[in-house]
Design goal:
- The chain starts with a helix and ends in a 12-residue tail after the last strand.
- The longest helix has 19 residues.
- It has a single domain, classed as Glycoside hydrolase/deacetylase (TIM Barrel, Alpha-Beta Barrel).
- Helices cover 40% and strands 19% of the residues.
- Helix 5 links the parallel strand 5 and strand 6.
- It is of the alpha/beta class.
- The site of zinc ion (ZN) has 5 residues, from strand 6.
Length: 259
């Protein structure tokens, strides 16, 4: 039987299509639909500023301060209630890889790099062996009321304190140019890495102000986590550059912490 040339070509085309379809892996559609579920972990992250006596302070100063005596009582409360203070590296590993955390994880953070944090909080943290994080404004180092470079080195050398970046001059990053924000963020990272001679991978936004482009900037600059002032404790791998925190006020105990 002789097939016409046209019919032969048509059969060839059909055969090629069958082979092509058969060679497509069966699970392509399933793979493209697969989504990575976010890891969500409840970790309260406490935010402190000044650890100093409140006498003579105005309302604004008082709201940002916890007295040394009350700070010590709050830290003892954490220990007594069975909380385990964790580092940014532990939170990062938990969010990224699902690494286990100790029971009742909590983070203790300090913003701005005030000298009184070193003077009044660090001895308590060392005595109770509580890891904590200090976000430093690198351009304010060595100024009156702020830590010195040597102080930052000493805090880092305890092995309990993670030093994080908080820009060079504590500007509201959402109100300055993209280039200036880039320089503020990356500049503080570079300053602290020069002082400590190791990578700085945690960042806190001054005034808690951030925007979508800033989230990208912080990620591109090599930070693993970034901390806001959004109130909450639900940390997620999908918002690792928008971690939630809780501002702590002066009181003998942190009343809202669950027992
Ligand atoms: Zn700040």
């Amino acid at each position: 039987m002789h097939l016409s040339r046209t019919r032969t070509l048509a059969i060839l085309v059909i055969l090629i299509e069958i082979v092509a379809i058969a060679s497509i892996p069966c699970c392509v559609s399933a793979a493209t639909k697969r989504t990575v579920l976010p890891r969500v972990i409840a970790v309260p992250i406490l935010t402190y500023h000044y650890i100093r006596p409140l006498d003579g302070l105005d309302a604004s100063g008082r709201s940002l301060s916890v007295s040394p005596v009350h700070f010590e009582m709050q830290m003892e409360q954490l220990v007594l209630q069975g909380y385990h203070a964790i580092t940014p590296a532990q939170l990062d590993a938990a969010l990224t890889n699902g690494d286990p955390l100790p029971s009742k994880p909590i983070m203790i953070t300090f913003d701005d790099g005030y000298y009184d944090q070193f003077q009044n909080a660090l001895p308590v943290l060392v005595r109770l062996h509580l890891p904590a994080t200090m976000f430093i404004v690198s351009g304010f180092l060595n100024r009156y009321g702020y830590m010195y470079e040597s102080t930052v080195r000493a805090a880092d050398a305890t092995g309990l304190i993670t030093i994080g970046a908080h820009t060079q001059h504590h500007m509201n990053l959402t109100t300055i140019s993209t280039l200036r924000a880039h320089n503020e963020i990356l500049g503080s990272k570079a300053d602290l890495e020069r002082i400590l001679n190791h990578p700085i991978t945690a960042f806190a936004y001054p005034f808690g102000s951030y925007s979508t482009p800033l989230l990208r900037e912080v990620a591109a600059d090599g930070f693993h986590l970034a901390f806001t002032t959004v109130n909450g404790d639900r940390q997620s791998s999908q918002i690792r550059y928008q971690l939630e925190r809780s501002h702590v006020r002066d009181a003998p105990t942190i009343s809202w912490l669950s027992r």
